[in-house]
Amino acid sequence: MNQELFIMRKCIILKHCPDATNIMPPVVIGAQNNVLIAETPSGQKVFKFGAPGLVEKNAAVSQLYNIRKIPVPHVTAHNVDGICFEKYDKVSGITLFEAIQNGMTREKIKQVYEDILFEFDKMSHIWPAHLNNNLTRNVHDITMLNVSNTNSPVLGKLCMALVYIMNIGREQDRAVFHSDITPKNIIVSPDGKFTGFIDLDNICICNKNYAFGIMAAKYQELGLDVNELMNKYHQISHNRLPANKINRRIALATSVKRLLWQHANKKRHQK
């Protein structure tokens, strides 16, 4: 975040919350550059700036998930001088990504994912109709927005088309899932227990196989058995996932990730 943008956003926060102090970007590696954290009389708050439709959608999915006791931040949407942002209490704990870097054991990682499968099953019962019509409510729209902002509009359109294809499936398998359940979006307690999800941008309408495939791709990348994960989900939900479709989505998701990484790396070297 450049200094001019930081100052502008800091002024917006102070207009909204005059008692805010120590307004700073997060110190977590890989944190988004549209996020600021501030001390307030009621505790640390996160201010995340974004497009109006995305901010409104994130507040709506926060409410949907909280009603169903799926642990995500309680997000409220705000607009100050035409600038839209989310506000929520800073989540305590660390990301699973950080915990793994700190040496979390394989067994504890597997336990975190087993706990997540219970939440994933709850997500499968939040029908698309529960989310009001919004231009940023579908996974391919979210993908185009994210990739266009972080890579390029051309890649954004390409990835949108790929995700659209990966997301094709039965109507009854569509629900409001977190479509990017990866270690950087999973929060754990100091003793390594699952406590919640972050990054509400990626909570959207998508096919169960797609959302599970994205989660499984990272699970496999950690050296864990995807078939074991699918079997555990079957035990929890009494619904068996199609292994061939999940594996195709894992392969495509891995290819897309590699493409985006190569493009981002090329941009860094050009600078």
* Average pLDDT over all residues: 91
- Count of individual helical segments: 9
**Side-by-side strand order of the widest sheet:** 1-2-3-5-4
Low-confidence stretches: none
CA-atom Rg in angstroms = 19 Å
Order of helices and strands: HEEEHEEEHHHHEEEEHHH
Largest sheet: 5 strands, antiparallel
What fraction strand?
Answer: 15-25%
Helix proportion of residues, in percent? 40-55%
Query: Any idea what the shape is?
Result: globular
How would you classify the helix and strand content by structural class? alpha+beta
Q: What is the terminal-to-terminal distance?
A: 16 Å
Number of strands: 10
Tell me the layout of helices and strands:
Blueprint: H1 3-16, E1 21-24, E2 35-40, E3 43-49, H2 52-67, E4 76-80, E5 83-89, E6 94-95, H3 96-101, H4 106-123, H5 139-150, H6 153-166, E7 174-178, E8 186-188, E9 194-197, E10 203-207, H7 208-221, H8 226-237, H9 243-270
Antiparallel strand pairs: 1-2, 2-3, 3-5, 4-5, 6-8, 7-10, 8-9
Helix pairs in contact: 4-8, 5-6, 6-9, 7-9
